[in-house]
Amino acid sequence: MAVLNNGVSLFYNVNKLCKHLTPAFTLPNLLNGNGKQIWTNSAASVPAKVLPKESLYRRMKDKVYYHAFEKYIFRAKGFLLYRHCCDNLDYIKFMRDHEMPDTFFSWFLVTELHVWMLMVRLMAAGRDGVETKQNLVAALWQDTDVRKKQLGSIIDSAVKTHIREIGYQFNAAIIGYDEGLLGNDCILAGAVWRRILQMECENPEIVENLVRYIRKSISELDNLPNELFLKSTKIKWQEYPVAEKKIY
């Protein structure tokens, strides 16, 4: 039993006796010091809405249409968007300007950054954007797997293990980039320095220019209407400033 400030006793074991009731009514509403009602569940103050149930025919029709047509349309959009994303990137120049080694992992980090920016834009494009985003990521992993196998005679088990590790890092990087995008430039700079620069960059201007490049690119993508962006056949990335190398 818990005694509240207003002297009202609340028995929490009422949930055990009223499991058949909705969560909004398993606990009583109380009165605060101003005489206003306070609820132990936010659902109590929200009126229930009953959505009309679609017929079995309509549900089956939507599923058949999706698996027969829409699924392949979204797949084509995602793979084409990935192709145009990579075709318009000068990887060698990007790596050189940001003091990155010319390796397979550097290629993945640069591609990952630009795929993430496209994912951010697609998430704001409704259901079509979400479906396209899933296929965009699928295209990334397919391309990664193909490129990894082209590096030479590598055991398949080693390739799968490496791809799996990169996948874990990819998920963590997306969270870090999202946090920086929603936060301030300091948080985004930290995410950029930890991920794409691998905590090895000693030139703060490179980090600053990358943050400016990301903000500007996402802003330009946001200015595109959803219809134009989903139907676009070419993504033109922003020109990024190059940091001057300083001699200390």
Q: What attributes does this structure have?
A:
248 residues; disordered N terminus; two-stranded antiparallel sheet; disordered C terminus; mainly alpha
If you had to describe this structure to a student in words, what would you say it looks like?
It is a single chain. The protein has 248 residues and is mainly alpha-helical. It contains nine helices and four strands. It has helices at residues 14-17, 56-87, 91-97, 104-122, 126-149, 156-182, 185-195, 204-222, 226-230, and strands spanning 2-3, 9-10, 30-31, 37-38. The strands form two sheets. Strands 1-2 form a two-stranded antiparallel ribbon. Strand 1 (2-3) and strand 2 (9-10) form a beta hairpin. Helix 4 (104-122) runs antiparallel to helix 5. The N and C termini lie far apart (69 Å). Residues 1-46 and 244-248 have low confidence and may be disordered.
